[in-house]
Design a protein that fits this description.
This protein is mainly alpha-helical and 232 residues long. It has one domain. The chain is built from eight helices and two strands. A two-stranded antiparallel ribbon has the order 1-2. Helix 2 runs antiparallel to helix 8. The longest helix is centred in the middle third of the chain and has 41 residues. It is elongated.
Length: 232
């Protein structure tokens, strides 16, 4: 592991109390590759499975809309039963992977920002904000993009700025979240057929968009992890 003397961290504005005279201490970078792989499995897996879930909902809405709304399946409807069972199973898997992804990507963002502090290549944000920005309404529409972009640029050994596809990732991410949010809210507003149809349509459109965003996101954090681990 790369080690930094206390002299570097003493002048760190993010040290305890923000004091220039903070107690000298040593720190080492933390490996990112394992955390990145966990993010790839959980984030990528949840978005990948969201595609067949959305397609399953579309099939049910087209062939047995009352089943999707009420959850009641007639015993004689074997095909509908099978599709509905697979749909529910995959939806639960997506939910489980989404929950598992939260601590994984929180850990990755914290470590990536902290490693840059140790290497004396600080971003403009404390590691805690690299995590918190994702949870603050309105702020999470922009600042996670800015924060990860700074991690990318300061981790890049060539010092190059983030590529244009970095912006594409964020546009897809926000658009997918908006569509998924609309689908969820409409699905919670009673059993109106029109709302159920709109919710299903929003989910179908959002699924490939969110999958593309997840692929780009995993690509960026994998690249950053390789850069930082090479210095460790």
């Amino acid at each position: 592991m790369a080690r930094v003397t206390g002299d570097v961290l003493t002048s760190d504005p993010w040290s305890v109390g923000g004091s220039q005279g903070a107690k000298a201490q040593s720190a080492s970078t933390q490996p990112l590759r394992t955390a990145a792989r966990l993010v790839a499995v959980t984030v990528g897996g949840s978005q990948l499975l969201s595609v067949p879930v959305a397609l399953g909902a579309l099939w049910l809405m087209t062939n047995a809309p009352e089943v999707l709304i009420t959850g009641d399946v007639l015993p004689q409807d074997g095909l509908v039963q099978g599709v509905f069972f697979a749909y529910g199973l995959l939806a639960m898997a997506v939910f489980a992977l989404t929950l598992a992804a939260i601590p994984c990507w929180m850990t990755w963002h914290w470590r990536a920002a902290r490693n840059l502090m140790v290497l004396n290549r600080h971003t403009d944000h404390h590691p805690r904000w690299h995590v918190a920005y994702w949870f603050v309404p309105l702020v999470n529409l922009w600042m996670p993009y800015v924060a990860l972009g700074q991690i990318y640029e300061r981790s890049n050994p060539d010092g190059a700025t983030a590529p244009s596809a970095f912006t594409l990732w964020w546009v897809l991410h926000v658009l997918g979240n908006v569509l998924n949010g609309m689908a969820f809210r409409m699905s919670m507003r009673g059993d109106a057929m029109e709302l159920a149809e709109l919710s299903t349509l929003a989910s179908v459109v959002a699924a490939p968009i969110s999958l593309g965003a997840a692929w780009l996101y995993v690509r960026w954090i994998t690249r950053i992890s390789a850069w930082q681990d090479a210095e460790g």
